Amino acid sequence: MLSHGKQGSVDEQDQGAVARTLRRDGGGRAPPGSEWKHWHPGRTTQRFAAGREVGLTETVDKPSSAGQNLAMPELPEVEALRSFLDQRLLGQTIARTELVAFSALKTYQLPLSALHGLEVDQVTRRGKFIGLGAGGLWLAFHLARAGWLTWKDTVPAAPARPGRGPLTLRVVLDDNSGFDLTEAGTQRKLALYVVNDLAEVPGIASLGPDPMADSFDAAAFATILQTAGRSQLKGVLRDQRVIAGIGNAYSDEILHVAKLSPFKPANGLNDDEFERLFTALKDELTDAVARSVGLAAKQLKGEKKVGLRVHARTGEPCDVCGTTIAEVSFADSSLQYCPGCQTGGKPLADRRLSRLLK
Ligand SMILES: [Zn+2]
């Protein structure tokens, strides 16, 4: 959790400790619809090189509730971005940076200009963070819920100016290509860091293990669930300090595939349920990464939407059992689930969570 001083909060609802998940959930979020209202198809005209786009957020045409929100990039989408940047940036020299939204920069010790003249030698992902390594320094960023990266073959000659637009930071390479980090909407959650070591970024230092790592095996996952105690699975899966990279969408998907209630206590699974959950977690993320990496934005959006079976599908029939997909609303977000697959046909009452949140 990024909590000290001006560090502010990135990905707030995902950064809380398990013990705090319930109390925190619903706090510090964007107003209902604030992301997708500002996400519009026009933004997809931003392109990567050779007509390639990488879309990290989703446009939901007709959101029916706060829950119909696919906006926040999660592990698979951020991994797709890392892969793209790896191809574009390695060996390139950072010529200059133009910071437009000053509040996005969360570190003070090193100025952005410290990166100027340095060659990018690493592009890495930590949870939902991207780190660009150059000459021993790192530029790290977290796109939060409404961030976007736009590649430019040729960066405009005129310096970017502070204004009301979405541009947060422009990075220009010495061949005059580069990228913009932008943020839609009015909330300013996109966060930038210039550090000597990625561990200096609080949100990275506190990350739990990456579920795509080989070391994240059944034994490791079992330990995580036992440690989480009676915390509900939904909150545990998306707590960045417990497992890095899973957010609201993929936690819904994983629980659906595993046929488990989002409110089931983490340490209350029998062997079969545990096996289903572990397999679902690995398979869902692996499949989503495979679909995301290398795809253009329009394809990516389509693939992600097709790939989601319950998240943001309230009111639609479940692909597995035909039951109408339901949702539980929080103050300003929601989860989706299939009562037929996950809760023995019983609906989960919103007030149950409201009460627990107090
Ligand atoms: Zn179902």
Structure description:
The chain has 358 residues and is α+β, with helices and mostly antiparallel strands. It has 2 domains: 5-205, MutM-like, N-terminal (N-terminal domain of MutM-like DNA repair proteins, Alpha-Beta Barrel); 218-357, Helicase, Ruva Protein, domain 3 (Orthogonal Bundle). Helices cover 28% and strands 16% of the residues. The strands form 3 sheets. A 4-stranded antiparallel β-sheet has the order 1-6-7-5, with no helix packed on it. The radius of gyration is 20 Å and the shape is elongated. The two termini are 21 Å apart. The structure holds zinc ion. Zinc ion binds at residues 318, 320-321, 323, 338, 340-341.
